[in-house]
Specification:
The chain is mainly alpha-helical and 251 residues long. 45% of the residues lie in helices and 7% in strands.
């Protein structure tokens, strides 16, 4: 077994990692696998999330919970390290940032393993998506009737962010490995990595970035709306990739 160095643990905080044992007062992630418990949790959290609409709360929950995938894929891709991200090892802790509900994630067991093969990485990816996040999606869908198209895109945007990240200095060989892993994640041949799907649930959201009026950088416009604009004072939280505005402003 290995661990991360102090700088890596600190970097992981940007991906919503919560190191303090005080996090044990948070919500056990296993409760998110049950539709009834999920509905009760979202109903209780609505006011903290900033809405009285259960579907809005569900979408915002999935946007935050997607950082489980972000943490796992980042440490795997750039450090060749494996975190234990099984639901029974996760506690989600309430927090806020700039007025937004922004929970963090505590690992009961923070031990880290080194990947020794591509097969291990595939198994790890399946454990994140097929064995964890897909169950959370189905739980939310059962609890709120929210489309899983929105839920999967809420995950996809952060998966794309991980693999298009410029925070890391990579040599050409490492870039090729990263890009190959990204292409594998988007392949329909690997749709079974994510659950019982005939088509890859991430790939439908991967499109070229475009110019949008009033933005200096190109963006990948979302295909679904995440409902951030429906929070209290929501226009200030509307995504810059929102399809409702970008499709109007696109050059």
């Amino acid at each position: 077994m290995n661990t991360l160095n102090a700088q890596q643990w600190e970097f992981l905080r940007k991906y919503r990692f919560h190191a303090s044992t005080q996090a044990l007062n948070g919500e056990e992630a296993t409760s998110f696998l049950d539709g009834g418990k999920m509905k009760a949790y979202l109903s209780h959290q609505c006011s903290q999330i900033g809405t009285d609409d259960l579907k809005v709360a569900a979408s915002l929950f999935m946007k935050r919970y997607a950082f489980v995938a972000a943490m796992g894929l980042m440490t795997m891709t750039y450090w060749n390290k494996k975190l234990n991200l099984k639901p029974e090892n996760l506690i989600m802790v309430n927090g806020d940032k700039n007025g937004l509900w922004m929970p963090q994630f505590h690992l009961k067991d923070a031990s880290v393993a080194e990947f020794t093969s591509q097969e291990e990485k595939v198994s790890f990816i399946q454990s994140i998506f097929r064995d964890h996040l897909d169950h959370v999606i189905q739980s939310i869908k059962n609890a709120t009737k929210l489309s899983n198209l929105i839920l999967w895109e809420n995950i996809a945007v952060y998966v794309f962010w991980i693999f298009e990240n410029d925070d890391f200095l990579l040599d050409e060989g490492m870039k090729r490995q990263r890009n190959d892993q990204f292409q594998a994640l988007l392949s329909d041949e690997n749709s079974h990595w994510f659950g019982n799907y005939h088509r890859n649930p991430l790939a439908r959201y991967y499109s070229r970035k475009v110019n949008v009026e009033e933005l200096t950088e190109t963006v990948r416009v979302r295909k679904t709306c995440c409902f951030s604009y429906r929070l209290g004072n929501g226009e200030q939280y509307r995504c810059k990739t929102c399809p409702q505005t970008c499709l109007v402003k696109k050059n």
